From TrEMBL:
Stated name of the protein: Cytochrome bc1 complex Rieske iron-sulfur subunit
UniProt keyword annotations, A-Z: 2Fe-2S, Disulfide bond, Iron, Iron-sulfur, Metal-binding
Entry keyword Protein biosynthesis: no
Cofactors: [2Fe-2S] cluster
Region (Disordered): 37-57
Purpose of the protein: Iron-sulfur subunit of the cytochrome bc1 complex, an essential component of the respiratory electron transport chain required for ATP synthesis. The bc1 complex catalyzes the oxidation of menaquinol and the reduction of cytochrome c in the respiratory chain. The bc1 complex operates through a Q-cycle mechanism that couples electron transfer to generation of the proton gradient that drives ATP synthesis.
Record Pfam families: Rieske
Annotated ranges, domain Rieske: 63-155
Taxonomic superkingdom: Bacteria
Keyword Iron recorded: yes
Amino acid sequence: MTRSQEAVRLIGRRTVVVAVGAAGAAAALTACGGSGGDGPAGTAVEEPVGGTGGSGAGDGAGAVLARTTDIPVGGGKVFADQGLVVTQPTAGRFKAFSSKCTHQGCAVKDVSNGTINCPCHNSTFDASDGSVKGGPAKQPLPGAAIKVEGDAITLA
């Protein structure tokens, strides 16, 4: 292989590697960029029973996550496969947050007594707004968008 052919081969490979890296970074920024458009980034989107419902389009949007009766008042449920925790702080009001602890990224374990609990280092988060109730975590849980329509809780 001549020197110029080798240069073209390397430039082509680098271009592909850079393009793939840029696409991955763009996807990550898009995925982490907000709460679904219904609230400020990093805040949970509160959805009362009988909400507006989802469009059914997008990454799992419209997929039934749970029934309202599956989420206890004052408690919640962790959905590990979706990376979410859904809470019902007061009767008929539902919130969703990332299930990834902001301390070191462990998955939260459960919701009890009004707090979302991380088993790794015992951080606790308020089930109504995701704020830190007890450290070592210093940042709140990022909010996530859900829709409640009838008795179905869906991904927004």
